[in-house]
Structure formats: structure tokens, C-alpha cells
């Protein structure tokens, strides 16, 4: 029987039907149309490329900057017996080589690639020989310099079109302004415009914004009133601990999370929150990508996000179960000022970028003319401290160095230890006989890890140590010795960001940096901050402000944000005041003092406002200092 999109969905995922827009996107992809899909966070973007690829011969190449998410998706596909593999920074050249061979000669259906891997001629050449059925570009806004999270490595995606001119592109993102929508399609070389999108309106989200002097007190009241689990976003690592401690001291089960924690600690904290053992997770924006927890009842921002795009994504982690949820943004005037100051810091001058490059090469002891292709674990905080550089300016300088292809920098990601036997079974057996001390360890590896002769497999040194009754240090030493004996290759775990030099070191005076581009980006970032200020200051409707920013033309207020609720309460109150005034004046004309005192609804200021409006519209008449309701 011929497979259909629905039968694939049911076979591998067990769902009876698609979510809104998924079927339309899959239909266009199967027709071979280049497609840009705009779907909100949690809308099910991954199925839009996974389902059509499974219906076609060949491999789907997925580009994503989120390494943790790539790893999760590969693991989830493998659980469904769908062969998938990921290649990202931190993997050895040999690991990459084996993985790419499996994509050409094996049965791999999905290859997940970090965009910076496309800097490699080796990767490009191997992709040329793959039978590719689809290119899926996740977080596609990263390719646009007008996107909120521009990644220079995304510009390498144009090479995919050169390698396979006839293969369909599916670009996916949750947030894109009209300018970015156009830019994505142009940069990816769409044959014709084709955009499918859901409304940016989230009907179940009640957006709230408060200018609040006591942000901690208001946050606590919100959490206690809302019930359920939630996320509190803060700007830096120190704040995550301080706010979590404050919540714990006030009886709220809370924990903190940031990218500087050991991966094992991050995973435990995330799991405790996912399983509702921790009620509130206080985090930097490193938390949340790829986490599909449906019952988040609130997302609180204690600092103003850098852009409305970032805010929309982070706030959108609330209420994925379609039940009522509340994104709450708390701010002070000082937060607004700091946001503008950060824009200034994010665009260092040419001299600072030169200096940063010079220090970076010295940091890794790279000689002039050397360094091309070299990869290092890199801690930008440690680097900035050593050379007494401002952290935000250093991070920005690195991004501009990456944009002009001097280097490539990946996010921090946990990569477990890996092992692969480099000899055949017969030769390994001879080694076991001649080196009895290694026999138990080799048997344990063979029992626990399948495919260890064919490719690198993730291993757990602690588990192996338990199984053979040795210490972890002894097991690691034995693995290293087996590598020396050329029986296998052992790669230790890492969770550091990876920095790669793409060109030989030059004298910093000869460094080329595209300063006009930097000035254009700065002007764009200033516009983004102004858009956030508009969102904070609007008097209409929060949802409408977001929808208009993303180019959605509608004037229907949401009815559930703080402004709509306040307006509804005010309108209801004013309506009651009007009714009371009518009843009182129909009985007898009154002086101003008597009339206002007779009213039972609203504050005196509101009563006077309503009376003034009634006078202006001639619903109430004033004669000889007496107010009356005319009877026609």
C-alpha cells in the first residue's frame, strides 16, 4: 500500500491528524516548492520536514544552530527506528568522516548539521555525493542581517543550492518581520515566493506588562496567584541564583539554570522542572529551546529582552497546552536605559575588534601565517577577564570576526565521551587473549554498545567502571592505553564552546572588517529597541502590538492582555456611572456636588470625567448650576 503523509504520521508518531498548517507545508514540500513556514514556538515545525522526507528516497539535511535541540531530535528519531545522525563543532575529524560516509553509503535518513560545518570543504564535497531529498533550515531568521539573531555561518547555506540546485528548501522560523521574510527567501535562492504562516496571535496568552519599582515582590505575587509551573527569565547568571534563593526563602520550590553549569547539573535541573518537582526555574535565555513542556502557566521577564522577536519566542513557552497562561514583563526606567546602553556596547569600534583578534591569537599561541583550521575549547568569560575586556563588547567583536570569516564560534554543548574499535573482531580477540587485564572492559563495551566497530558510540565511563569493578580513573586510563595500542579511539567528553580559526593569522593591522555592515546592524538594533519601547508604552492591546510588528494586519484586540482587561473594567465602570447619573437626574436635577456624592461607583476623578463626556455629547444639560437629563 502506498504511504501517505497521514500514514507516516501515524506509523512513527502515533498521531491521528496534523496540527494546523503542518499538512499544507508538507503538501508544498512534496510538490517540490521552496517553502518558508512561519509557525509559533511549539507549533510542531520538525514534523514538517521529517514526514515528507520519510516519504521520499534519500536523506534530509537539517541545518540548525541549536546543538542541544539537534541532539534531542536525533535521539527521538532513533527511538522511532528512524536512522539519524548529527554533526557539530567539537567532534573529531575522524568522527565527522565516518558520519559523512554513513550518510553516503549507509541508510541514514536525517543528517543534522550545525551551519558552521559548511565552512569545511570536506563536508561540502561529501554532501555533493549524497542523495539529498530535502534541505530543512531551522531558525531560518538567522540568515538575515535584519533578523534578531543573525548568524554569519548561515550565509554559507547558499553553497547547498550550488551543490544540489534542484533540491527543495524548507525554511522554518517562529519569528520574522516582513523584511526578514523577504530576506530569507532571497538569501536561500527561492525559485518563487512561497510563505505559509500561522497567525502570531496566541489566543490563550494574556500578555501583561508592569512598570514596577518592587519587581521581586510583584513577581512573587504573580507566581502565588497564577499557580502551576513557570519560568522566570533574567539577564545574567548571578541573577538566576539570587532570584531562585529569594523564591525558596518565600516558600516557592525554585531552582536556577544557566549555560555556565556542568551539563549533568543542567540536565538534572531541567528534568526536575519538567516533571514538576521544581515549580519555577529561574534562567538566562540559554534555557527553553526545544523544551516542549505543555503546562507552563507563566513566563516572567525580570529584565527587558533585547528584541520583540526574542520576547515572543520566550513568552511563547507558556501555554502550549492551549490553556490560559500569562507572559509577564516587569521593568523599571533603569532597565530601559540599560537596554539602550547595551546596544552601544554591542557595536565596538574597529580598534577594539583588531585588539580582540590580536589577543585571541596570542591566547592560543598562534603564529603569524598559522592557525587555519585549528579548533579549540573556548571560554569567552575567561578570555575577557585575562585581557581585561568588557564581556559584551568581546562577544560582539567575535561575532563580527565570524561574519568576515576569520573564525567560527559554536555555542556551549555537552558532547559525551565516545569510543570506536579500530581493528576487526579477530584482531581484538587476539588482544584480549594477550592482554588479560583489558578483557573485562572489552567484553563490557561489546555487551553494552552496539555498532562500536562501525562508528563512534557515546559511552559512559562511570557505568563501565561499575560493571567491571574498577574506578572511573582506571577505566579512562585503560581506554587511553587501548588507543595507544591502536585497538580503538577514545574521545573524552566536553561541554565547552568550540572556536575554529578559518584563516591563517594576519597582523592585526591587515585585518579586514566590514564596518559599514556593523553600522547598518547598529541602526537596526536601535530600531528593535524602539519597537520594544513601543510595546511597553502602547495603550491599545499587547497582542495587537506584537502582530503589527510582525506585519500582521488586524485591529481586533485580544481581550485578555492587561490593557484589554483594564479597558474592559474601565468601560464597565464608566457604563455603570452613566446609568447611575441617568437614574439620579431623571428623578431630579442636581448640583455638581450633590450629583457626585450620590454616585456609588468609581473614584471621584472618574465620575467627573464621565459627567464631562455626557455634557460634551449633550446627554446631560447644565442650566443655572443644575444638571439634568433631558427627556425627549
UniProtKB/TrEMBL annotation:
The keyword S-adenosyl-L-methionine does not apply. It catalyses: Couples ATP hydrolysis with the unwinding of duplex DNA by translocating in the 3'-5' direction. SMART domains: DEXDc (SM00487), HELICc (SM00490). InterPro entries: DEAD/DEAH_box_helicase_dom (IPR011545), DNA_helicase_ATP-dep_RecQ (IPR004589), Helicase_ATP-bd (IPR014001), Helicase_C-like (IPR001650), P-loop_NTPase (IPR027417), RecQ_Zn-bd (IPR032284), WH-like_DNA-bd_sf (IPR036388). One of its GO terms (biological process) is DNA repair. Coiled coil: none annotated. This is ATP-dependent DNA helicase RecQ. One of its GO terms (molecular function) is ATP binding. The keyword Metal-binding applies. It comes from the Bacteria. Its EC number is 5.6.2.4. Belongs to the helicase family. RecQ subfamily.
Amino acid at each position: 500500500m502506498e504511504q501517505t503523509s497521514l500514514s507516516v504520521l501515524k506509523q512513527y508518531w502515533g498521531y491521528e491528524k496534523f496540527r494546523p498548517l503542518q499538512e499544507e507545508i508538507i503538501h508544498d514540500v512534496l510538490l517540490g516548492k521552496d517553502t518558508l513556514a512561519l509557525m509559533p514556538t511549539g507549533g510542531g515545525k520538525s514534523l514538517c520536514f521529517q514526514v515528507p522526507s520519510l516519504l521520499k528516497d534519500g536523506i534530509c539535511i537539517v541545518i540548525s544552530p541549536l546543538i542541544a535541540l539537534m541532539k534531542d531530535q536525533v535521539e527521538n528519531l532513533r527511538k522511532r527506528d528512524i536512522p539519524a545522525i548529527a554533526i557539530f563543532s567539537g567532534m573529531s575529524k575522524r568522527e565527522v568522516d565516518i558520519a559523512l560516509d554513513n550518510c553516503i553509503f549507509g541508510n541514514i535518513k536525517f543528517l543534522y548539521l550545525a551551519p558552521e560545518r559548511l565552512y569545511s570543504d570536506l563536508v561540502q564535497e561529501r554532501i555533493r555525493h549524497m542523495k539529498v531529498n530535502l534541505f530543512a533550515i531551522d531558525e531560518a531568521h538567522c540568515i538575515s542581517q535584519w533578523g534578531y539573531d543573525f548568524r554569519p555561518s548561515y550565509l554559507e547555506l547558499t553553497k547547498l543550492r550550488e551543490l544540489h540546485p534542484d533540491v527543495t528548501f524548507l525554511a522554518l522560523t517562529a519569528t520574522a518581520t516582513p523584511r526578514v521574510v523577504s530576506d530569507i527567501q532571497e538569501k536561500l535562492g527561492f525559485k518563487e515566493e512561497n510563505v505559509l504562516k500561522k497567525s502570531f496571535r496566541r489566543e490563550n496568552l494574556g500578555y501583561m506588562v508592569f512598570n514596577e519599582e518592587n519587581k521581586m515582590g510583584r513577581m512573587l505575587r504573580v507566581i502565588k496567584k497564577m499557580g502551576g509551573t513557570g519560568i522566570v527569565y533574567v539577564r545574567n547568571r548571578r541573577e538566576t541564583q539570587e532570584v531562585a534563593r529569594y523564591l525558596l526563602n518565600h516558600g516557592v520550590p525554585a531552582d536556577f539554570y544557566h549555560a555556565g553549569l556542568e551539563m549533568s547539573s543542567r540536565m538534572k535541573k531541567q528534568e526536575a522542572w519538567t516533571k514538576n518537582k521544581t515549580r519555577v526555574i529561574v534562567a538566562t535565555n540559554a534555557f527553553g529551546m526545544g523544551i516542549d513542556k505543555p503546562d507552563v502557566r507563566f513566563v516572567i521577564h525580570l529584565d527587558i529582552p533585547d528584541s520583540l522577536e526574542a520576547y515572543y519566542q520566550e513568552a511563547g513557552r507558556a501555554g502550549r497546552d492551549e490553556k490560559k497562561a500569562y507572559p509577564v514583563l516587569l521593568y523599571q526606567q533603569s532597565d530601559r536605559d540599560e537596554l539602550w546602553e547595551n546596544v552601544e556596547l554591542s557595536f565596538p569600534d574597529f580598534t577594539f575588534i583588531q585588539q580582540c583578534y590580536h589577543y585571541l591569537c596570542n591566547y592560543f599561541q598562534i603564529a603569524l601565517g598559522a592557525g587555519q583550521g585549528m579548533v579549540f575549547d573556548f571560554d569567552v568569560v575567561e578570555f575577557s577577564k585575562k585581557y581585561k575586556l568588557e564581556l559584551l563588547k568581546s562577544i560582539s567583536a567575535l561575532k563580527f570576526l565570524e561574519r568576515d570569516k576569520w573564525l567560527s564560534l559554536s555555542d556551549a554543548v555537552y558532547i559525551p565521551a565516545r569510543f570506536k574499535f579500530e581493528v576487526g573482531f579477530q584482531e581484538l580477540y587476539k588482544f584480549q587473549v594477550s592482554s588479560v587485564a583489558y578483557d573485562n572492559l572489552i567484553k563490557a563495551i561489546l555487551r553494552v554498545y552496539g555498532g562500536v566497530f562501525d562508528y563512534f558510540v557515546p559511552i559512559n565511563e562511570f557505568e563501565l567502571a561499575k560493571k567491571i569493578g574498577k574506578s572511573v580513573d582506571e577505566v579512562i586510563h585503560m581506554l587511553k592505553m587501548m588507543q595507544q595500542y591502536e585497538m580503538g579511539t577514545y574521545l573524552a567528553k566536553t561541554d565547552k564552546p568550540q572556536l575554529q580559526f578559518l584563516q591563517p593569522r594576519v597582523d592585526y593591522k591587515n585585518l579586514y572588517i566590514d564596518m559599514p555592515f556593523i553600522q547598518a546592524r547598529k541602526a537596526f538594533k536601535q530600531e528593535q529597541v524602539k519597537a520594544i519601547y513601543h510595546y511597553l508604552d502602547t495603550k491599545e492591546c499587547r497582542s495587537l502590538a506584537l502582530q503589527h510588528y510582525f506585519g500582521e494586519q488586524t485591529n481586533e484586540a485580544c481581550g485578555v492582555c492587561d490593557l484589554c482587561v483594564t479597558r474592559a473594567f474601565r468601560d464597565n465602570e464608566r457604563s455603570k456611572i452613566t446609568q447611575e447619573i441617568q437614574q439620579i437626574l431623571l428623578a431630579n436635577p442636581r448640583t455638581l456636588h450633590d450629583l457626585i456624592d450620590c454616585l456609588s461607583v468609581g473614584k471621584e476623578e472618574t465620575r467627573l470625567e464621565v459627567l464631562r463626556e455626557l455634557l460634551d455629547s449633550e446627554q446631560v444639560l447644565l442650566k443655572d448650576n443644575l444638571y439634568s437629563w433631558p427627556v425627549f
